[in-house]
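Supplementary notes for students who missed Thursday's class. We covered one full example, reproduced here. Read the sequence, then the structure, then the short commentary at the end.
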Amino acid sequence: MIIHPKNILICSMILIVVIFFSSLTFCQSEAQVSIPFEIYDNAGGQKILYFGLDQTATDGIDYLLGESDLPPYPPTGAFDARWLLPENGFNGSLSSWLDYRNAPGFPYSGTVEHRFRYQSMQGATEMYFYWNVPPEVTGLVQDLINGTFVNVPIEGHGTYQITNFEVFNQLKLFVYYNNVVTDVVDNDPGEYDFKLEQNYPNPFNPSTKIRFTVPSVIVSGAKQSHLITLKVYDVLGHEVATLVDEVKKPGIYEVEFNTSDIKNLPSSGIYFYQIQTSNFVQTKKMIFLK
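Structure (token representation):
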């Protein structure tokens, strides 16, 4: 059988392409500093973005760090959240779920600006972002106009409900690094105390989500778990539901309170949810609109 030289050339080119992309996958590495930043709405849309630092990172797409240029925005009614990369002046020509920037060395101190764009699922009435940053990192989220409509300090971990999220569909995040070192990946919530977040959405019908943090307590070199109970009460102090009653490892958890699962729920109004451990109790108020 005689193989035409043209076919040999085509096969060789295909082989080179396959080897090239295989090597990209093989050589892909985690960024030296990687921090989660979550955006979600109350209609089921949710995406965790990541930002951080690496000595090989650029302002463009860094394939070896897992960044990839995303396709155009989906039509209205479909959830979307992404970083707009700084190359070309944050004009949206490059976007990614990861946005790592260059650090010439570590420990690193400096300020980095990120911008993120989002759109809600159809039917959403609320939009939030959630952060969890290490002690060496703080930040500030602002609107693109003058920083007065949205102006949210970022420290530790917390949640913010974006007002007028359909109007302000882009925000900027300033990240302030203070002698940050490498290997900061998915910041360990154990750096913090017990914490019970405000439920979202609030008011709600028929369901809402409750997030809480279980910190690390190190005994004899090992992180200890904690017996956690999370219960819902009515205004008279009667127990309505037990959402959690088990031992939990250090971490950030989220549970759903769905009134559809509760038989003979008295009425709409104010309810209380309380987290309790052997040495910590915290209670917050929520509103059910029936």
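Commentary. Residues 14-26, 185-191, 218-222 have pLDDT under 50 and may be disordered. The domain at 189-288 is CATH 2.60.40.1930 (Immunoglobulin-like). If anything here is unclear, bring it to office hours.
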